[in-house]
User: Fold these one by one.
Assistant:
Number 1:
Amino acid sequence: MNGRPLAWCAFLLVVLCIYVWMRRLSPRFAWVFAVGFVTRAALGLALFYISLRRLPIMRSLQLGGGFWTLALDGRSYFELASRAAATTLTIINDDLPSPTYVRVLAVWLRAFGATPLSAILFNLACYLAFTVLVLIASRRENGRNAAAPTLTLASLIACPSLLLFGTQPLKDTLCVLLITSLTCGFALWTVAMAYLPINWTGVGGGMLLMALAVYGTAGIRPYFAVFMIVATVAAMIWSKGFFPVRHRWWAAGADVALVVVLWLAFMTGGGPYYRVYTGYARNIMFRDMSPIVPFDTARASFIASGGATSLEMRLDAREFSPGLNAVSFPERRPGFVGRLSATVRGCAAMVVPISVLRALSIVTFSGGRGLLLVTDIDTIVMDLTAICCIVWLTTMGRWRTAYDPTLVLIVLLAAMTGIAMAYVVTNFGTLFRLRLLVFAPLWLIPALASRFDARAETLVPADAVPKRQ
């Protein structure tokens, strides 16, 4: 199946139209978008050509055919999606890794051609959708554009790992888009519910964005979909304390409907993982299972698999051999001190350059294949962008909006994911990719800062229900 010239031309025309629209709203934002788009496209084409022609550039990292070792699973995703694009999507069953991503990629390849360049184009489409959502969510209620959220877009562009993953058929760019969909959808939902008469267009749009985010994530990284639902419910409960009493019951009823929709999205998108997680929930609620057991089980699986970049300083094959887990052998689960130590070490690996931790003998491993310098640069950039986003919130009077439910959603989502990941994931190579799930929500703070200001006078206790102007 060859490329589709007409489809590619149509995509470029859509990009041009969106760029013109962005220019009218915010020239600065449009310029940052263009830089990110061109950089991603140029790097993707360069890496594809180098690997395809086997040029003498980083040969040890080349897989040939346009693929690289940083995307070993990306090649399998592409091959399966290509077969599905040429035949039928039914060959992608729910038991395969990330079935939702593979199905979406297969549909894309069917439209644009089964070539690795089409996978690069798909990541560019995710980047395009991300910028559109960010710009829409950053606009004020009165329709005027707020200060352009260039810091959010700049953080996305500056992240080396996301830039590299975007040149391969990997799911990371789509995951960042799904996080954006959830957060922006919740922001639209909260604004729509803050006034009377209720803006049902905003309610429907916000619900749709959140449902799509949970559905897509459930079929890619189902554990993160659970965190999405938990953070959303907690943020909704938090927001009810700032609604006027007469409006609170209407909002609570709508929130119940939203939770049902999100749960159905997780049920349909999660496939077999839905049964696994509901089984854990039943055991925790009705059989006195400790909530930490699922995390101990997942961590034991990581330790048993080992790996060249394992963060564990001592691996006891007798204690963590293949097939053993924390449920079957509860006496082998670590105690509080052990869990705390593992979590602190994992957090350090997430935010401190790994070379520094190795030099201090905090972690020891032998792998890396020359990519440790890249991971160190990526860590530093992620730290700086996250700090800038937090500083953005605490300056210029934005600290007064700390009660905003969207900010609560962002903080809870990042905190839950970060702590769970720090404890469970013992392989630095895996942690290097997964930590995007922690930092991506923080990058959205500047994009939603204008919405915080717009809602500052509505989501507070009041005697009267605020009216839409």
Number 2:
Amino acid sequence: MTAVAPTSGPTAGGTTVTITGTGFTGATKVAFGQVAATSFTVVSATKITAVSPPEAASMQTVFVTTAGGTSTPVVAVVVFFFDAPVPTVTAVDPTSGPTAGGTTVTITGTGFTGAGEVTFGRLAATSVTVVSATKITAVAPAQAAGTRAVTVTTAGGTNAPLAGDQFTYKGAAPSITTITPTSGPPAGGTTVTITGTGFTGATKVTFGRLAATSFTVVSATKIIAVAPAQAAGIRALTVTTSGATNTPLAGDLFTYEA
């Protein structure tokens, strides 16, 4: 034997390999390592075509057997590499969880056999269970609010991030306990101090349906907002963050006094 081409194919098998050499007439067997080819055809005394069998990711010497014996391994020229497939992620469920981590996420896709690592962004999952070649369960690690790509790494490589593998970390929903003052003129302009929890990264403050003229997040428990102009009446204040919007309660009511 002098050469095989191509020299690699998937672990699922099915690659048609051309084997060149001498003395192939009457060949009775072609093997990839210790596993027989799925099928083979003796084209001539110097050429055989064989279909690679399914095999684990590995390097295997190709052998040809005839009545005269079995070819001597020549590792430099007659080896075939069974390449593990690059995994793909098609979906994650659920698609979001708290910044504290701990969410058990089911990942579906392909090529997961032998997966060695699952990451959420740049951080490794707290734990990983490979259920099958198409399913993994992984526990999300703690990290800051935001959207992260979920990646799976195997011997075949790491999946390219796509739309279906996104996991969003959400902060805890904010809550409002008090506002000071609790009233102001319809013309707006009242500076209101809002106290509560979960205000970090607030993106919006509203008085009823109208956004505050401006607001400043002082801390995770304090916001200063300027009331917008609107008609006389009672309005609930809401604070929106990546985690959600607070549920209006008695402590967050602001009265526009005529």
Number 3:
Amino acid sequence: MSLRLTLLLRFTAGALVALMFFGYIAYDTAKLTGTKNEVALLAGVAPYVTENINGYLQREQNWEPVLPAPHGKHSHDVIHLVVSNHQGEIVTQSKTPAIQNVFQKIQQVTQNSASTNSGSITLDDAIYIWAKALLPDKKSQVTLIRQAYISQANVFFKEMGISLIIAAMITLWVASWAAMYVSMLMEKLDEQNNALQYQALHDVLTDLPNRALLNDRSQQLIKSCERNKALFAICIIDLNHFKDINDTLGHHVGDELLLEVSNRLKKALRKSDTIARLGGDEFSLLLPCTDAESAKLIAEKILQSIAVPLEIDGQQLLISGSLGLALYPNHGNDIHTLMKKADMAMYAAKRTGIGVEIYNKQHEINDQNKQSLTNSLPI
């Protein structure tokens, strides 16, 4: 799964969770606020209902029509009127047992708080609002009871459904945009990091691995050869008279020459081999699963490919190289020792003009003698 798709799914999931959380808070808040508003409205109606009932009683008329018969289809459209005496006994005949239960619960809630004249209660997962008022004779009390409009689950969605859908669409759009933006930033950072890492491990001119990457691959190859008891060879190549070309024809010609040599080396090597530029006109080759005989054949092939004449800026150039070889584990068990001995062999090949030299102890003796002679010269 791609980074962009992963982030998109995570951001979307997070947005949905946040939307559900805040949606629930909004629903709960709207439910509480709506219930309070309904209670306040019913409490405002209660005194007028009580006044009408008292008028009917004074005229000795039936007061039951004081609330007209509801025309709605839902229970929250019906306002139930309950008249109770001073002892809290119902003196009206309610045709709804549920309302009698609601009234009894209201009495339980208010028995310790006589000053409470309105409120809401929950019974059987339904919310009922109520309001009380005393008749002028102080002997009877009127209680108005109605199922809360907000108690029905679909009410919230009827009132806020469009807002929720719009909020969900906006939230998902923002989450998608954020996921795309963050993924683009992360991909750009990855590209920059990869580019920096690549630059740190490759030569700027030839785009070949540099000394750091060669050392890393050599360490890995040594570990593999230790486990499998295998051999490998390391070569160091130096171009002959490269400094003269640079000095006489210019550095741009020297750079073109290095690019051509690097391309020839790539074509002459196997896919499993590694070619690196150590600096200047010096290259190094890492040849896995190669013994002394095979390494020498590869080295001769490489020098033949380098020796093919080339033309740069109208100048025909004849180039050649000197190559030194060192073998693992015959000449060393670490990359630094092997590189040092391959370098000795390369300088021996340059001195003798042979072209290819495999390291032997005589090369080291010659180098020591040369160093001793250099140290003995007057400054």
